[in-house]
Amino acid sequence: LVNIARTMGLGVDPDLTPGKYGLYESEARRRAWWDIWWWDAYTSTLSSRAPLIPLHAFSTRLPLDVDEEVFTSACTSAPLLSPTGKEGVGRWFGMRVRLAQLVKDINCRTSLLSSLEQPSALLSLEHASQCETEIKQWLSDLPPAFRMGNEGMGEESCVPPQSMALSSNASHGGTPPTLLAQRLDILMTTHRLAMGLYLPSLRPHSSPSSQSDSHSNARRETSPQIHQARVGALTAAHGVIRAGRDFVELACTRPDLVRRKDGLGLSLCCSLVYDVHSGILFFVPFFTSVF
């Protein structure tokens, strides 16, 4: 798909070839490229592989924020959305691209850090905390239409498990289904990104020939740094679970809005929670050997 898009020249901004494309076709080409760019960012994050489209490897500008309901091939000027005008569905494309930019930027820096020879756990945790702060700031800067109440990143919820579904239904009762699906996309993606920041610190550092690794890893398990990583990962996992639960509820009434997420999103949720859980359980044998 990426190679086809490059062959079609979608990675080159239409303005670089004046007179070749009209206004509507230019915007359509930009949307097609950034849609593929977002798909690449999402699937590469999901599969823990390097993205097929590197950063700054194309010239296609971001699409304009236009009113999708009136923007047609007959338009001679772009019907731009005003900053205080329509929000929600009309702005989702641009918001999704900005979300993908956040994911790629943090993943790029994380990959660069992990390429260093034996980075210390403390350095990784400092990087994770900085990136999590950026994610929180990104969420706080969202337009009101895209904000979810009580995102929970960095905080543990005090709501009892049996009342979580009731509170979820109450909080989303007046939200249009399309807008809710977009909010849940943001919620799941940002929390999955935050959880991935802490997982490397939960993996034991071992070498096959060293018998002292078990005692070393047991000491790491009780360190404040590992506790910080565990809390960060599990708190982010809670956000992924919340988004998955709400996606299930949404699928009952609007399956068309969850057609690509009911399998992919929930599988992602289960696999991530399992990864965190198995990473923590890995230390149990070391505890038993010490005590």
TrEMBL record:
<dbReference type="GO" id="GO:0006351">
    <property type="term" value="P:DNA-templated transcription"/>
</dbReference>
<dbReference type="GO" id="GO:0008270">
    <property type="term" value="F:zinc ion binding"/>
</dbReference>
<dbReference type="GO" id="GO:0003677">
    <property type="term" value="F:DNA binding"/>
</dbReference>
<feature type="domain" description="Xylanolytic transcriptional activator regulatory">
    <location>
        <begin position="2"/>
        <end position="80"/>
    </location>
</feature>
<protein>
    <recommendedName>
        <fullName>Xylanolytic transcriptional activator regulatory domain-containing protein</fullName>
    </recommendedName>
</protein>
<dbReference type="InterPro" id="IPR007219">
    <property type="entry name" value="XnlR_reg_dom"/>
</dbReference>
<dbReference type="InterPro" id="IPR050613">
    <property type="entry name" value="Sec_Metabolite_Reg"/>
</dbReference>
<keyword id="KW-0539">Nucleus</keyword>
<feature type="compositionally biased region" description="Low complexity">
    <location>
        <begin position="203"/>
        <end position="215"/>
    </location>
</feature>
<dbReference type="Pfam" id="PF04082">
    <property type="entry name" value="Fungal_trans"/>
</dbReference>
<dbReference type="GO" id="GO:0005634">
    <property type="term" value="C:nucleus"/>
</dbReference>
<feature type="region of interest" description="Disordered">
    <location>
        <begin position="152"/>
        <end position="174"/>
    </location>
</feature>
<feature type="region of interest" description="Disordered">
    <location>
        <begin position="203"/>
        <end position="226"/>
    </location>
</feature>
